[in-house]
Amino acid sequence: MNQSQTLMQYYPIGLIVICLIISVFASYIALDLPRLLLAARGKARRYWFFGGSLALGFGLWALHVIGTMAYRREGGAADYYLTALLSSLFVAILVAFACIGLSVRRELSVAQMVRNGLLLGLGVCGTHAAGALALDQARIAYSPMLVCVAAVLTLLVCVSMQILAYRFRSPVSPLNRLVKAACSLAMGTIIAAVQYVGMIALRLSPLASVSMEEFKPNVYFWLAIGVAGWSILVLGIVMLCANFADRRIAQQVALNGSLIEAASDCIVVIDAYGRIMEFNPAAERIFGHRREEAVGRFMPELLFTTLLSDSYGEAIARYVRDPADNPFGERTETTGMRADGTMFPLELTVTRIRKADPPILVAFMRDITERRRAEAALRESEERYRKLVHYSPDPVIVHLNGMILFVNSAAAETLGAKDPEELMGRFFSDFIHPDDREIAEFGLHAPPSRLSESGPAELRCYKLSGELIDLEVKSIFVKWNGRGVMQTIARDVTAKKQAAQTIRQMAYYDRLTGLPNRNLFLELVHGHLKMCEEGGSEAALMFIDLDRFKTINDTLGHHVGDELLKAFSCVLASSMRKGDILSRIAGDEFLVLVPGTTEAEAADIARTILSNANMPFKVEGISLIVTPSIGISMFPKDSEDAEELIKYADAAMYRTKELGKNGYSFYDSNVRTISSREMQLEQGLHKALEQDEFLLHYQPRYDLHSGRIAGVEALVRWHSPEYGVVSPAEFIPLAEESGLIVPIGELILRKACEQNRRWIDAGYPPVRMAVNLSLVQFRQTHLVDRIEQVLRETGLPGELLELEITESVASQNERAVAERLQAVKARGITVSIDDFGTGYSSLSYLRQYPLDVLKIDRSFIRNLPHSSDDTAIVQAIIAMAHSLHLSVCAEGVETKEQLDFLREHGCSEVQGYYLSKPRPAEEIETILGTTIASRIENAS
């Protein structure tokens, strides 16, 4: 092999390998550079753009130069025009700049990628053409077909490279880099091959041949070696920097991605044109758009309404132009739009990333729907509180260190001011009674914890007019215009206290005669008997009953009977000694305790009473003569217990009646104390239970607000074949004494519940069935279980049953009564107090026990509205019941005047002969569902 052959083999093989390396490096840079430029910011982005474009352009130029150097033919060596050669370098660099500049965009269509590829291909072809023109000492001829093939291949390779570069913009990963390296190797090999196809298309005819013997490598050979070395060095450095940048970008992308994805607020990154570059998971959840759908979309158009889209688009453009002008401010509340078109309140903050070029904006958004709801609820609560305070019927006074800052209208009215302004600036203590100021001072200076734990206090206060009123006050600490002040809520309890005083009077004293009633009498008797026991003296207890009083009462009327009782009570009082205790316990029955006396002295007092009572009584012009029957029991001979003494005196009184009345008898345990009538009735009760001689009648109760039937009261009737119709007033006490009231009461309860169930099943409107419960029944241990069993067996809901208890029940063990009533209430059963005002003296049970209805005794209704005493009492009872949140039912309504009076004064329900007398069940069915108006019309 000669020297020329060696050189021809040496040059192509070595330089072709170098061309291949340069081609692969340049391909890798062309594929990776657009992604690096998009990821970089500020100066780094400019450095990458200029450095990468220069390296790529130099690589393209070096590829052509070295390829030309490797081409030797016909024993000729290629020489160059240096100026033309450098011009081709400029063309290559210019093409690289143009191609990279067009490729660095967030979004590229296929047409744009093809356009950029064609531009790069034309630039490469132009570089080759400029390099060929730079050849010296040769004529250049072309093979048209090979030139076209080379050009087409170059264009296809460049277009493919643009498409691949766009596809490799995805986040950096090991697999991504491996695929990119493989594509770079493939593309570089193809580019090197295309280079040599282009060189083969050239036909060079040397102008001056050089013999092979004289051939020596010239300066262009070493130029090729130098260009190759620099090209590899530059491209290698760029690739190393690119790999280093990949790691930094991967770290930054991972960090930013984790922060953005983990954020609970929406984070939307947008470019200078308002297009979405990043859309975090919180934004996906809130707006309902997937990230793939959102990226690239115009943010104002996607996330806001049409009205806001234009203004926000202009605001973004203004912010991009002038970073100092942020039209969004620090925080903007606006309206967002979800994917389904629904609107929601949104808090928007837009900030610009510093040193980002081109500008990048980040929108932080938060769904403030819940906050708006909370704020609206707070505003609503404040408005509700303001209205509650302003329009509260209870006085509200706000004061600081005793000085009044605010009062509502009710407080101004209560204190006698025409306008709340009259009280502003005055001291609350000025209105308080001097004796109660110490209590008020505690409220002014007590710590908040003790104040909240303390209950309401009662204060006597003066109105501006000087009138003294009673207030129930409760103070709490509140915030008022940013200051801690005291808010006092008051209630005018003047009428309540007066009513309580009236009720107390009613509870302790007989309203007709003014004498102590049974309750006060028992309290006084216990004390006096204890004194007698300590002093070793005796005492007499007298039971006095007027003979023929019922006949007078029924014949001449109740008003005559009342006047007769008043006159007789005066006669009794005049017959008593100082220290004796006189009491009217019911109807025409009186009790007298004569402490410190013997039987003989007691007999003298009894004779005095009989003598004084024998004189005629003048009542409304009528001369009436009544005689008393007196029974006497002695302490401690007969008993040391007050109740037993009363019982024995009662028995002695019946003994007097049996002996002809108008006299007195002492109790004797050896004689019969029960009348034959009572014994016969008691025996008849046993038989009545066995033969079911008890019937129920029902009396409707009407609701005065709606006018409709609110319920019915079950009233027992005894139809005895032997005794005829026996009054409940006669056989019920016997049943209680004998214990038969328990089975009789259970029978009444069962029959009443069964009847109500039948009415419901027949389609009649449901009404409450009221059943009386005696003291003896209430003492039964299994009372609640029995009631529950009856309800279960009859199928009647507990809500349609009402149990009426007397005030005597309330006088029992308070804890036991409360527990039993709570158990009854737990079944949904209504509890009412029957015949209120005639029994138990203490009213504490009204607030201690779970009561629903207070029934006013018919004795208070009888003389309405003509009796001022009865009027005051009924008004007091109604006012007190309302203050305790109890419903009020009036019994014994017999006239329209009584009905109108009760309706006018706020009574809840009424029953009486004026509306309907007690009727059998079949007659009640005809009036179920009727109103008061229809009953009055029928009555008239």
Question: What can you see in these coordinates?
Answer:
- This protein is α+β, with helices and mostly antiparallel strands and 940 residues long.
- It is built from 34 helices and 30 strands.
- The protein has an 8-stranded mixed beta barrel, surrounded by 4 helices. A 5-stranded antiparallel sheet has the order 6-5-9-8-7. The chain has a 5-stranded antiparallel sheet with strand order 11-10-14-13-12, with helices on both faces.
- Strand 10 (396-400) and strand 11 (403-407) form a beta hairpin.
- The longest helix has 44 residues, at 219-262.
- It is elongated and about 165 Å long.
- Mean pLDDT is 77; it is low at 1-11, 72-77 and 207-220.
- Residues 259-297, 381-438 form the PAS domain.
- Keywords: Membrane, Transmembrane, Transmembrane helix.
- Residues 537-669 form the GGDEF domain.
- The chain crosses the membrane at residues 12-31, 47-68, 80-104, 116-135, 141-166, 178-199, 219-242.
- Residues 678-932 form the EAL domain.
